[in-house]
Amino acid sequence: MNDQLLSIESAAALLREAQQSGKPVAPIKDRLRQADIQTAYAIQEQNTQYALSQGRRLVGRKIGLTSPVVQAQLGVDQPDFGMLFADMAVGENTPVQLSGLIQPKVEAEIALVIGKDLNHERHTYADIIGATEYALAAIEIVDSRIVDWKISITDTVADNASSALFVLGSQPVLLKDFSLTECDMSMMHNNVQVSVGKGAACLGNPLNAAVWLADVMVQCGRPLTAGSIILTGALGPMVAVSSAGTYSVSIDGLGTVNTVFE
């Protein structure tokens, strides 16, 4: 039986194969020798190291599980994180091929672009505000290499927090020029509203998510550096992408960002 269990290395390879083939795999949690969150992050780190060895450029992080409801569903009491690489960035209105994704969903987020290294053991709002060059409206395209999104916290963390692609808006805004908590968000699909939310939906304040991430990345030995992009977390319910079309996200004070699926 133990011979059939996945090691950290074999689990990482399995997820890479699923990504490359476009064929999702069964949940890995029950096939790991130890299925805790530390093991899940070790699997993620294995694939991060592999990506870097292939010449991919690390440009930031995404924060997931910022909704208390979703945390409760997965039985956790904190967010999770995944890595963002340059080749995951999609230009606004640049066609995204549905055939290149497995089971995509979209969510609206506030992105922060950091201008200073964040390397303190414990960060404050002041640290994050002082280090943030500007904010952008963003769309995260999430995907899962786990069949039918049957994920536990172990599955999603190991799978790079179920990340796929991201789209940044092109209207940089200083934090002092809009409200991180009071800004309203609306997502449209082909002019039909499919999701609404507010800045405060992200852990009460997107800065809470950013502080958490900055602290955790120092603990992990991968502190956020100048130029890093932070996707702070969803402002409203994610939406499954079932057909081609345009998704448009508007966030008060941050403008609009669009992505097109073909």
Plain-language structure description:
The protein is an alpha+beta fold. The protein contains six helices and 13 strands. It has helices at 8-21, 37-53, 68-74, 125-131, 153-158, 206-219, and strands spanning 58-64, 80-85, 89-90, 95-96, 105-114, 132-142, 163-168, 184-189, 192-198, 229-234, 239-240, 245-251, 255-261. Strands 1, 2, 3, 5, 6, 7, 10 and 11 form an eight-stranded mixed beta sheet that branches. The chain has a five-stranded mixed beta sheet with strand order 4-13-12-8-9, with no helix packed on it. Strand 12 and strand 13 form a beta hairpin. It starts with 7 loop residues before the first helix and ends with a strand. Residues 77-259 form the Fumarylacetoacetase-like C-terminal domain.
List keywords for this structure.
globular; eight-stranded mixed β-sheet; Fumarylacetoacetate hydrolase family protein; alpha+beta; Fumarylacetoacetase_C_sf; 262 residues; five-stranded mixed β-sheet
